[in-house]
Write a structure and sequence with these properties.
The protein has 3 helices and 21 strands. The chain is mainly β. It has 3 domains: 63 residues, GMP Synthetase, Chain A, domain 3, CATH 3.30.300; 95 residues, Trypsin-like serine proteases (Thrombin, subunit H, Beta Barrel); 125 residues, Beta Barrel (Thrombin, subunit H). The protein starts with 16 loop residues before the first helix and ends with a strand. It comes from Gigaspora rosea.
């Protein structure tokens, strides 16, 4: 008689969740005490440890020495110097010319003006509140507030409306009110797939909260098009551009650039085997340079705290 074959492979976890949470909290406190900037702190199940991403800078030396005394001691991953931004994709040259109405899909290029010229971000999702329509995007997009936003270019018919409501603290999001009747609302993500070199279109049918690691999610951004990756950490804390973001999600190997800020985060729905159905997850906020990881904000915050619903 043959022995049962082992299909599962268990690895001993040396650190308990209680220990990891303790190290995580102490690390965040030390990061504030030592005034560390541009970092990412997360609990990553793959390593059964707290992972710290930060710049290889002499001023971080004392912070590193201090956190190495914690038990368990976090894993520290030093970042390379930030590379010059490369323009991968310009969705503005791919606008659908046959439409009488101006379409703003998830990931569309949205622009506003500042003293130095044009600032570009990406549209997140269409939202609705008190019978008024909004685009939710990253709150840090405009330098001046309030600010007018346009889709693709500064033409009257491309005006979306003003961003006169935003949050730029722990919850980085802004709401652009639609005032232009030429703008057509669609719960659709339509962007270019840089790998397969084709347009992909997804219909948003619901929303999904990310509660565990290993989930596959994607971003639609105006520069990089559609890019995907697997969640490796949830409920992380990130600090960059003098802002501390709490309850973020880390996704490595997902190519994103500055103008992708505010872009739609989504995951495949798979309803009835349909490949073009997706659930909204959140919006792209930013990341620590060199990590190949991003930070997103859960849409659950929109529903619970601000009572704003996806437009259907």
């Amino acid at each position: 008689m043959k022995n049962d074959q082992d299909f599962l492979n268990f690895i001993t976890a040396n650190n308990t969740l209680s220990q990891l949470n303790s190290t995580f909290n102490q690390t965040f406190i030390l990061a504030q005490q030592f005034n560390i900037t541009n970092y990412e702190i997360s609990i990553e199940p793959e390593f059964n440890n707290v992972i710290i991403y930060l710049k290889n800078d002499e001023k971080n030396k004392k912070f590193i020495e201090k956190v190495e005394t914690l038990n368990p001691s976090p894993i520290i991953k030093l970042l390379p110097n930030e590379e010059k931004e490369e323009k991968l994709f310009n969705s503005s040259i791919l606008v659908e010319k046959s439409n009488l109405n101006i379409l703003v899909n998830g990931g569309s290029r949205i622009v506003n003006l500042n003293a130095n010229g044009v600032l570009a971000c990406s549209a997140g999702f269409w939202m609705k509140k008190n019978n008024e329509d909004f685009i939710v995007t990253a709150g840090h997009c405009p330098d001046h507030f309030p600010s007018l936003f346009y889709v693709n270019s500064f033409q009257d018919e491309h005006l979306i409306g003003p961003m006169n409501s935003r949050f730029t603290g722990s919850y980085d999001m802004g709401f652009i009110k639609k005032t232009n009747t030429n703008i057509m609302l669609r719960p659709v993500i339509r962007q270019f797939d840089m790998i397969n070199l084709r347009f992909l279109q997804f219909f948003i049918v619901g929303s999904s909260e990310i509660t565990s690691c290993g989930i596959h999610i994607c971003i639609a951004g105006e520069k990089t098009g559609i890019s995907s990756g697997f969640v490796i950490a949830i409920n992380s804390i990130s600090e960059f551009s003098d802002r501390v973001l709490i309850r973020t999600i880390v996704v490595p190997n997902m190519r994103c650039i500055h103008s992708d800020s505010g872009g739609s985060m989504f995951r495949y729905n798979g309803l009835n085997g349909q490949s073009n159905i997706a659930d909204a997850v959140g919006i792209f906020i930013g990341g620590v340079p060199g990590i190949r990881a991003i930070v997103i904000l859960l849409l659950l915050l929109f529903f619970v705290h601000f009572r704003i619903h996806l437009k259907s």
